[in-house]
Structures are given as structure tokens and as C-alpha cells.
Amino acid sequence: MKNKVFNFLYSAQDERKAIFYMIAGGFCFATMGALTFKLGKDVDWVFIAFWRMLFSFVLVFFLASKSGKTTILFSRKLLWLRSITGTIAMLATFYSFTHLPVSDVSAITETRPVWVALLAVAILGERLRRALLPITVLSIIGVLLIEKPHFDNRNFAVFVTLAASVLGAVVMICLRKLRDLDPRTIVTHFSLTATVGSVIFMYFFRDIGLYADYFKGYIILTLIGIGIFGTIGQLTMTKAFALGRASIVSSTGYAKVGFSAIYDLILFSAVFELYTIVGMLMILGASTWLLNSSDGLQITRARLNNQDS
User: Fold this and answer.
1) Domain membership flag for residue 206
2) Which of 147, 103, 142 shows the shortest CA–CA distance to 264?
């Protein structure tokens, strides 16, 4: 009896810690998004993405090397698929952060679990759940409601955000097949691939000479802030999933949307119409419905290595 009580109290304590870490991670990612949105008015979004991933790679490589784990692995084709797809999703996300309100990006990308469920049916041959159709419809209607006021002039940015969400779902499917690898190896491989991918994109599609103007005090400080908050967010969310039940932890992660909305209101003077709020609630409700279903656990655990995609 004493052991049962102890285990219950210990489990409850871990759950509270997990919720705290998840809320902290949501705050960090929302802050990263707000800093990116602000800096995006003066700095190319690809340059921002490059420094974010370089910062992450250096830190994760150091931690993985210190632990004695294999940090770089080139022989797994599926690992390359995960990293290349994640790189495209990451670039799309940073493009979105500089072209849409932070809360819009945060809400739309929360449709990711729905795409995971659909892709799992198409790629992995998993059973089609009866609730999946209404959940998908609910999510799509939510996106339409959020972007209705400005769908014409920001149509491409909305499409890019949705594409980032779908690509992030592909990443999650890959992670299900890479469960035999150490998470640090996966994250290091992705961070390096994304850093190199950003450099290649800048070399072919940008005038790199213009980047010399970016080495100013406030730009450098903001880039450091983006790197710090993004990396801390990644680490705290990883810790949260290690401590708590995936369904509860993942639902708590929706705090990121709330923090993003606060930044939009306070820093960027955003005005939320009723249908925008309803759209956000529909997306979060649909994802919560899915993630609390019987096999939503697999989806949420895949998020462990999927921050920033």
C-alpha cells in the first residue's frame, strides 16, 4: 500500500514537472517566433534560419560528443529523408514567421498531428479511424477561419505554413522507423543538414554580400536570442515528454499558441476577430481530440525529436 501511494505521488510530481517544462518550452518557442517576426522586417528569413540551426547544431553536437554517443551517421537513408524533409519544413516555418502573425503560424502548425494520422494510414497501412474525417475537416475549417480576413494577400504564406505542417508530419512518420537510434544522433544529423541546407539556399538564391549589413548590435543580439530560446524550447519540451504522459504533455504544449497571441497583442498590436479565435480553438480542439484517442500516444511521442521539424 505504501509503495502504491509513493508511486502515485512520484508519478504526480513528474507530471507536474512535465507540464512546467512544456509550458516553459511553449514560452520559449513563442518568444523565438516573436523575435523572428520582429527581426524579419530587417533581416532575410533564410539568414535567421541559418543562425538558429547553427546555434542548435553546435550545442547538440557538444552535448552528444560529451556523452560519448555517435553524433554523425551517414549510412541511414531514412535518417537522410528525415533530415532533408525537416530542413525544408524548418525553412518554411521561418518564412512563415516573417510573413504571418506569430499566433497564426503557431495555430496552423498545430494541425500536424492530423496529417500524421492521415499519412500513417497511407504510408504505414494503419487503420483508418472513424473520427479522423471529422477531425481533419475541423482542422481545415479552423485554418480557413484564422486566415479569412487576409486570405487573398497572404495566400502563399498560409500555403507555406500548411506545407511546413505536412512536412513535419512526414518527419514524425520517419521518426517512428528510427526508434533504434539515439535521439541525440537524430537531432545532430538534422541540425547539421539544416545548417548546410540553409547555406546552400543562401548561396544560390541570395546575394550573400548584402549580409554584411546584418552585423549590427541589435541584429546580433536578436539572433543570439532566437538561438537561445529555440534551443531551450527544444530541450525543455524533450524533457517534458520524457517525464509525463504524452497526451497530457502534448495538450499542455498548446500554451505556445496562447503565448504567441499575447506577443501579437502586446508587441505587434494585433486585433483578433471572433472567427480567428474560433478557428484557433477548432484546430486545438481537433488536435486534442486526436492526441487523446487510443493511439494518439505514438504521434505525441514522435514529437520528441521534431521541434522546429
Assistant:
1) yes
2) 103
In this predicted structure, the answer to whether residue 297 has a pLDDT above a threshold of 50 is: no
Report which residue type is found at 237. Answer: M
What is the spatial distance between Cα 172 and Cα 46, in angstroms, rounded to a whole number? 24
Q: What is the dihedral of CA 168, 203, 230, 262, to 10 degrees?
A: -80
End-to-end Cα distance, the chain: 44
Query: Domain containing 184: what range?
Result: 21-305
Please state, in angstroms and as integers, the Cα–Cα distance from residue 201 to each residue in 43, 47, 114, 280, 300, following that order: 15, 10, 30, 32, 31
Q: How far is the CA of 202 from the CAs of 46, 193, 225, in angstroms?
A: 7, 14, 22
Helices (H), the chain: 2-39, 45-67, 77-97, 102-109, 112-123, 132-147, 155-177, 183-205, 217-243, 246-252, 255-266, 274-291, 296-302
**Short-list 82, 51, 65, CA closest to 189:** 82
Report the distance separating Cα 290 and Cα 122, nearest Å.
Answer: 17
Residue 304 has pLDDT above 70, yes or no: no
Q: Are 257 and 216 in contact (CB under 8 A)?
A: no
The 10s digit of each residue's pLDDT in 3-57 is 444 344 345 677 788 888 888 999 999 999 999 999 999 999 999 999 999 999 9
> Does the global pTM surpass 0.90?
no
CA torsion angle for 108, 109, 114, 118 (degrees, to 10)?
110
The band of 289, judged by pLDDT with boundaries at 50, 70 and 90, is: confident
Pairwise CA distance, residues 263 & 270, whole Å: 9
Q: Cell numbers of 280, please?
A: 484557433
User: According to the model, what pLDDT value does residue 116 have?
Assistant: 82
Chain centroid to Cα 287, Å, comes to 14
Spatial separation of the C-alpha atoms in residues 280 and 117, rounded to whole Å: 20
Number of domains in the chain: 1
Residue whose grid cell is 556523452: 67
